[in-house]
Design goal:
The structure holds 2 protein chains of 2 kinds.
Chain A: E1 2-15, E2 18-31, E3 35-39, H1 46-53, E4 61-66, E5 69-70, H2 76-85, E6 87-90, H3 102-107, H4 119-125, H5 141-154, E7 159-163, H6 171-188, E8 191-196, H7 199-202, E9 207-212, E10 215-221
Parallel strand pairs in A: 3-8, 3-9, 6-7, 7-8
Antiparallel strand pairs in A: 1-2, 1-4, 4-5, 9-10
Helix pairs in contact in A: 4-5, 5-6
Chain B: H1 2-12, H2 14-51, E1 57-60, H3 67-74, E2 79-92, E3 98-104, E4 113-117, E5 127-131, H4 132-138, E6 145-150, E7 153-164, E8 185-189, H5 192-198, H6 206-210, E9 213-218, H7 222-233, E10 238-241, H8 246-287, H9 289-298, H10 302-335, H11 357-382, H12 386-390, H13 407-411, H14 414-425, H15 427-464, E11 470-474, H16 484-497, E12 501-510, E13 513-521, E14 529-530, E15 536-537, E16 544-547, H17 548-554, E17 561-566, E18 572-581, E19 587-591, H18 592-595, E20 613-618, E21 631-636, H19 637-680, H20 682-691, H21 695-732, H22 744-766, H23 774-779
Parallel strand pairs in B: 3-8, 5-7, 13-19, 16-18
Antiparallel strand pairs in B: 1-9, 1-10, 2-3, 2-6, 2-9, 4-7, 5-8, 6-7, 11-20, 11-21, 12-13, 12-17, 12-20, 14-15, 16-19, 17-18
Helix pairs in contact in B: 1-2, 1-10, 2-8, 2-10, 2-11, 2-19, 8-11, 8-15, 8-19, 10-11, 14-21, 15-19, 15-21, 15-22, 19-22, 21-22
The chains are: A alpha/beta, B alpha+beta.
Chain lengths: 233, 782
């Protein structure tokens, strides 16, 4: 069953007289509980696609339907509501609040997410149960990314959106983070969508969406995706 | 969680938070302090005036008033209470101290409050109620015997109580004194019964002649009251409203000074604090932009994020306001307490502090303003979608400066170019820094200049331009004796004996305004006049000098003629203006030679017009003057100068406070902006380090920008400081007609302190450049 559907979605950015089409008439349908990778070079429109899906941005034209709900016409407050329960975000630069501890960063979402899970449980799941009282600056990059994943998961969303989640990590830590994301899809039925330009990560995916010049070039189904340990970083 | 974030973020930006809190506290504290001061002063004084029945009008007559006259005044409709009143300066036997003997026939008119001892008894024939400050300074206690001598009369009695009277709220012996000397001059109240007892019974009507004043409490308008009095007594009388008395006018003048101070200094501080808030909140907001984006991405609504970030400015506003209220109370208390600065000038029984409602309103508005500034800064960062908010803040690209198109630009060193571009790129930060320096400089120049001006005033007024050593007030020179001709004869004898010059003082009216007309006989160069540049000048024989205030009030110029009418007569005279002089009294000064040419109906001024010698100026010191029955009292110039010491002490304190405020202002503003500038340029400096710049070179870059702004601020600040001082002297002490004097020392000290503050802060901030972590700084994404 499709959890995400894009119907003729375009996003145009205007700067003075200059117009830039970041996405151009995109049509897309994504199944629930799958591990999907969006692949493409810089400026292809990957992040725009992710931002639109995550309700961080709205399309200039077209419809985006998530779990049966059209999010393309939502107001700012309705989008905030949508973000608070439907999607979880994992950023390349982690985007943790530096003045909150690891536990507090994760527990923060309980203030807005109606079905939030136990932050301690999530932190234990990502292997950070011993770091709860530390501040982000006291953690390594991989640990910070795991906090970011725990925070996203605590909202108990059905979709996890990851923008270059391993982009700032070394190979070893990157593999750990990918393993964790894969586990979320396989064991907990979450839909994981990863945006990257790293082709090796694509080999782990159930489906790979190739984006180029704001258009979907192809959608490649993979019957035998590799595990995180198997990919060549 | 967000509350914890607020607290920790405040800790993270502590330099900014602390500086904004200090600036807000200073602004509110100064505003509250000075405004509380004048409101409390006015309220306490009004209470004192009301408690002691301060007279609304004083009717004067050189011949005195009979009981019949009093009854006629009491019968005027609208007169609440009236009493015959007497006040004469007497000597405390065996000392060189003076006390004004005061008698009111009704204690509810121009009375007093008892601070210690027995209540006033109008039937007492031996009771003396003594001014408590005089008693304190001279160690006199209740129950002690006192003897006062006035001409041939001796007043002996027991101190029954220690008192304070609003008639003597500012207890000055005469108008040339600027500050009270509680140890040398005071007042006593005795009952009319006592006066009756000591007066020689054989002189008929002597009591009536002594009461030269009727004091009246009435809500009537001056013009209406004057007409009613003239009609009741059948002649034109001299009526002085409370506004023209020293106590009332000086006291209200003090309140007005507080108002002026409350409107200038706090505005400067509040302005700088608001500007600092604008700049700093904007910087905090830009630094927090990606966090704002993160919160948005997590699903926090805009309202919630706004509320969270507004709580930053609310925290600053409320903490600053609370500290400011405390500071305001302290400032007001410091000036207004029974042993404080104001108590050396004004004496009253209550010193309660009041905060007016509009001060609370202002405090609330300042907090609200802080909130609005915070809100606007954050709202700017929240604009657009969550995806926009997640992108770090990118400052607007600045256009190339004009200088960049010239050949000069090519020749400039890298550091100069870098700093010039940085200043232009961060205009608001640079402007606020400039205003901070400017504020520091203005305060310094105004404070030190005020001290120099007051010093120069005392030097020129009492040393250079006062040739006399003491002033002799001849007996019966007042209005007690009808035989004015004889009194003038005695005064002339004294002038000859002590080789003195002398003066005659008369009240005159010019265009509805009341002034003094002083006629001088100068042959020994003991009385001198100053022009507006403090240079000495001689009183001419073909015209009069008028003081600078009258010149301004009447819009006069040299060569103009004015018509003066004498109080109590129909006589009018035309006077030619020969020049303008600085004077502490609002007066017209003329030589006796010129005065002799003034005619009314062909007659010159005579004793019957009130032409009576009031003072003889002599080079003989007070101790050398033989105080016989011809002399009422003697005033030493040294006593006046000594009384100035306490005035200068207060001024010194004010200067120290202002200099401290200037330094705090400078350090707080510059440090805050310096740290901000350092943080903003961290990556740039890290890059310079990577390229091979040494720490010393980077420090020089940082300090040189600071110094450029400092030098600009100092140059503008010198002129702005002089401007503020000129305004302050005019607003705060117009009655002294002081010439603003700012010498090189004031400028040098102001420049040196401001420069030192800037350099110190520059060094403090630039020291941080040693800690730049090149790898970390350049690793973080733009």
């Amino acid at each position: 069953m499709a959890i995400v559907e894009f119907e003729n979605v375009s996003r145009v950015y205007t700067s003075g007289d200059h117009e830039q089409k970041a996405l151009d008439q995109v049509n897309l349908s994504l199944e629930e509980g799958r591990f999907i990778v969006v692949l493409g070079p810089s400026g292809a429109g990957k992040s725009t696609l992710l931002n639109l899906l995550g309700g961080l941005d709205s399309p200039t034209e077209g419809r985006i339907v998530v779990d049966g709900r059209d999010i393309s016409e939502l107001s700012e407050d309705e989008l905030a509501d949508y973000r608070s329960y439907a999607v979880g975000f994992v950023f390349q630069s982690y985007n943790l609040i530096p003045t909150l501890t690891v536990y507090e960063n994760v527990a923060l979402v309980r203030e807005i997410a109606p079905e939030a899970l136990d932050p301690k449980e999530m932190l234990t799941k990502v292997g950070l149960e011993d770091h709860m009282k530390q501040f982000p600056s006291q953690l390594s990059g991989g640990e910070q990314q795991r906090v970011s994943i725990a925070r996203a998961l605590t909202k108990n969303p059905r979709i996890l959106l990851c923008d270059e989640p391993t982009g700032a990590l070394d190979s070893q830590t990157g593999v750990l983070v990918l393993k964790l994301l894969l586990e979320m899809a396989r064991n907990y039925g979450k839909t994981i969508i990863i945006v990257t330009h790293n082709q090796n990560i694509a080999r782990m995916a159930d489906a790979v969406i190739h984006v180029k010049n704001g258009k979907i070039e192809s959608v490649e189904e993979q019957d035998h995706p590799l595990s995180a340990d198997e990919i060549d970083w | 969680m967000l509350f914890r974030k607020l607290i920790r973020t405040a800790g993270r930006y502590r330099a900014q938070f602390i500086s904004m809190i200090i600036m807000t506290a200073l602004g509110i504290g100064m505003f509250l302090g000075f405004n509380m001061e004048w409101v409390s002063l006015e309220t306490n004084m009004q209470q004192f005036f009301s408690d002691t029945g301060f007279a609304d009008y004083r009717i004067l007559s050189e011949d005195g008033f009979s009981e019949e006259d009093l009854e006629k005044i009491q019968a005027i409709e609208g007169v609440e209470k009236a009493a015959r009143y007497l006040s004469v300066n007497a000597d405390l036997a065996g000392t060189s101290k003076s006390l004004a003997i005061t008698i009111t026939e009704d204690a509810e008119v121009s009375g007093f409050v008892v601070m210690e001892g027995e209540a006033y008894d109008e039937t007492s024939t031996d009771g003396i109620w003594l001014f408590d400050k005089f008693a304190e300074e001279n160690g006199i206690t209740v129950g002690e015997e006192l003897e006062l001598t006035y001409e041939t009369l001796s007043v002996k009695g027991t101190v029954k109580g220690l008192i304070e009277s609003s008639e003597y709220m500012i207890c000055l012996q005469d108008e040339t004194q600027m500050m009270p000397a509680f140890d040398a001059y005071g007042y006593v109240y005795v009952s009319p019964a006592m006066l009756k007892k000591i007066l020689p019974v054989k002189i008929k009507g002597i009591m009536d002649r002594l009461f030269h004043q009727i004091n009246v409490r009435s809500g009537l308008e001056k013009k209406v009251f004057q007409e009613a009095v003239d009609q009741a007594l059948g002649k034109t009388m001299v009526v002085i409203g409370k506004e023209d008395t020293v106590s009332w006018s000086e006291a209200m003048g003090e309140a007005q000074e507080g108002k002026t101070m409350g409107a200038i200094l706090p505005v400067l501080f509040l302005l700088i604090s608001v500007l600092t808030m604008v700049t700093t909140m904007h910087r905090i907001a830009t630094n927090e932009k990606t966090q704002i984006g993160t919160l948005k991405a997590l699903g926090f609504k805009n309202k919630r994020i706004l509320r969270h970030y507004c709580s930053y400015s609310l925290l600053i506003g409320i903490t600053g306001a609370l500290l400011g209220i405390g500071l305001g109370y302290f400032v007001a208390w410091f000036i207004l307490n029974p042993n404080g600065m104001m108590a050396t000038y004004i004496v009253m029984p209550r010193w309660t502090l009041y905060i007016p409602w509009w001060c609370w309103l202002t405090v609330a508005l300042v907090v609200l303003l802080m909130l609005v500034i915070g809100r606007i800064s954050i709202a700017e960062m929240m604009k657009g979608t969550a995806a926009d908010a997640l992108r770090p803040y990118v400052p607007r690209v600045s256009r190339p400066m004009l200088i960049e198109k010239t050949k000069l630009w090519e020749r400039l060193k890298f550091g100069t170019k870098w700093n010039l571009r940085d200043i232009m790129r961060h205009k608001s930060r640079s402007i606020v820094t400039l205003i901070g320096i400017l504020g520091c400089m203005i305060l310094m120049v105004a404070a030190i200049g005020m001290y120099e001006t007051a010093n120069a005033f005392i030097e020129t007024t009492y040393v250079q331009n006062a040739g006399y050593s003491s002033r002799i007030f001849p007996a019966s020179s007042g209005r007690e004796t009808a035989d004015a001709g004889k009194a003038n004869q005695t005064a002339l004898e004294l002038a000859e004996e002590y080789q003195g010059d002398y003066s005659v003082s008369m009240s005159v009216q010019v265009e509805e305004e009341t002034y003094l007309m002083d006629i001088y006989h100068i042959e020994n160069d003991l009385i001198r006049f100053m022009d507006q540049n403090n240079r000495g000048m001689e009183l001419p024989d073909d015209g009069a000098f008028v003081c600078l205030r009258i010149r301004e009030e009447l819009g006069l110029k040299e060569g103009d003629e004015i018509t003066v009418s004498l109080f109590g007569t129909d006589a009018k005279y035309r006077i030619r203006i020969a020049g303008f002089n600085r004077s502490m009294t609002e007066s017209i000064s003329l030589s006796d030679t010129y005065a002799s040419t003034l005619l009314y109906e062909g007659e010159p001024l005579t004793e019957s017009d009130g032409y009576r010698i009031g003072a003889v100026y002599t080079a003989v010191s007070k101790s050398q003057v033989n105080q016989d029955e011809r002399i009422s009292s003697v005033q030493s110039r040294d006593d006046i100068v000594n009384a100035m010491d306490s005035f200068m002490d207060i001024l010194n304190l004010a200067v120290v406070i202002l200099v401290i405020a200037a330094v705090v202002l400078g350090i707080v503003v510059l440090y805050n902006l310096g740290v901000m500038s350092y943080t903003e340029r961290y990556r740039e400096m890290a890059t310079l380090k990577v390229v091979g710049f040494k720490n010393r070179q980077i420090r020089t870059l940082l300090i040189s920008q600071n110094l450029w702004i400092t030098v600009t601020g100092i140059i503008v600040g010198i002129f702005a400081g002089i401007g503020v001082l000129v305004y302050l002297m005019k607003a705060l002490a117009p009655e002294y007609e002081m010439k603003v004097v700012i010498g090189p020392l004031t400028i040098i000290i102001s420049v040196a302190v401001t420069f030192a503050v800037s350099l110190l802060v520059g060094l403090m901030v630039s020291r941080k450049s040693r800690k730049i972590d090149m790898v970390e700084a350049l690793k973080t994404p733009e």
